[in-house]
Structure of Methylthioribose kinase:
Amino acid sequence: MSAYHPLTEQEAIEIASTLDGFFPSGANLSSREIGDGNLNLVFHITDSVSGKSLIMKQALPYAKVVGESWPLTLDRARIESEKLLLEGELAPGLVPVVYKYDPELYLTIMEDLSDHVIMRQGLIGGTRYPKFADDISTFIARTLFFTSDLGMNQQEKKLQVKAFINPELCKITEDLIFDDPYTDSPNNSFDPAIRDAAEALWQNEQLHLEVAILRDKFLTNAQALLHGDLHTGSVFVTPESTKVIDPEFAYYGPIGFDIGAVIANLLLNFAGQEHWITDAGQRADFRQYLTDTVRDVWNLFDRKFRALWQEQGLDRLASSTPAFKDYYMQRLLQDTIGFAGCKIVRRIVGLSHVVDIDRIPDSAAKEKAQRLALAIGTSLILSNRKAQSIEEVIDIALSQANN
Ligand SMILES: Nc1ncnc2c1ncn2[C@@H]1O[C@H](COP(=O)(O)OP(=O)(O)O)[C@@H](O)[C@H]1O
Ligand SMILES: CSC[C@H]1O[C@H](OP(=O)(O)O)[C@H](O)[C@@H]1O
C-alpha cells in the first residue's frame, strides 16, 4: 500500500527530526504550512534552540488553487527535485540546496530561504535588486546551454528528454497560456471592466496566428530543459543574492519560454506601478529600472550563452558556423519576445493572475494597469517574428505607458 498522504504540520516535524544530523539533539521543532502557490504544501520547520530551519515541499494529488476536481500527477515532485539538483550542478549557488527527496511522500526537503524575499513582493515595494540581471542571466544561460544539443551529449540529451516528460504540467501551460485567453473559455477570469479588451483578444486573427505559432513551438521544440515557470514569484532575492525555486513545470521546450517568463513578469510589475508608486517622477524612475533590467537580462544572457557556445560547444557544425549562431540567437530573441507577450496576457485574462496588478485596491488604477499590460503583451506577440533587438521591447513598454 502507498505511504503517500498529505502531511500534517505535526507529521512534518516528525519527518524533519529524522533527517540525519540536521537538527542537533535537544531541538525544539515547530512547523507552519506557508504554501501560497497554486499547487503544493510547503512546511517551514524551525528549531527554537539552534535557530536552524528547513523547508519541506509536498505535492498534492490535485491543483490546490482549484481543488480535488482538478487531479494532478504527484510525479511533478520528482521532476522538481531532480531539476533542482541538476540546476545546483549547472548554476551553483543560484538554487536552494536539496537535502533529501522522499519518493513515497513526494516530498522535497530543502534549504530555507526565508532570509530572502520573493522578488514579486520586493518589486511591488519598489526595491531594486542590483545582482538580479547578472545572476538570472547566468542561471538561464548555463541551465539552458548545458541541457541543449549545443552543450550536452546528444544521445544523453534524448534520455534526459524522456526523464523530464511532464505531460500534465505542460497541458496546464498549453491551456492556460496558449489557448484559454484567446477564446471565451470557462477557465478565464478577468475584471468585468476590461471585458471589451478580453473580447478583442478572442477576435484578433492576426494575434491567433502568432499565438498558434508560439504554441506549436511550446508543443514541439525540445531545445533545452526549461525551468518552465520562471516568473518573479519563483525567484527569491536580496540585493546580494538570487535563488530560483519551484521548477515543477520543467520539461524539454523552447529556450525563449524561460527568458520570456522573466521579462514578462518584470513588465507586469511595470504595468502595476500605475498604482504602487504614486509620485510620477519616482514611478518613471522605477519603470526605467525595470526596463533597464529587461535589457540587461537579454544582453547578458546573449553574451554568456554565446561565450559558452564558443568555449564549450559540442556540435561541430553549429559551433563552427558563425552565421548559424547569429540565426539561432535571433530566433531565441524573437521567441523570447513572443512568449513574454503570451505570459503577460494570461496573467490579465486567464485563470491565474499576479498580485502586482490584482492587489491594486483602486479600481480605476487597476483597470489602467490591466489595459496597459494587455497592450504591451499583445504588441509583443504581434511583433515577435519581426523583432531585431531587445530595444524594441523597451520601446513598446514605454510607448504604451505614455499613451
Ligand atoms: N526554499 C524555500 N525557502 C523559504 N520559503 C519557501 C521555499 N520554497 C517555497 N517557499 C515558500 O512557499 C511558497 C510557495 O512555494 P512554491 O514553490 O512557489 O509553491 P507552488 O509550487 O505551490 O507554487 C513560496 O512563495 C515561498 O513563500
Ligand atoms: C492551475 S496552475 C496555474 C499556474 O500556477 C503555476 O504557478 P505557481 O506554481 O507559481 O503558483 C503556473 O504558473 C500555472 O500556470
Remarks:
- The first strand starts at residue 29 and ends at 33.
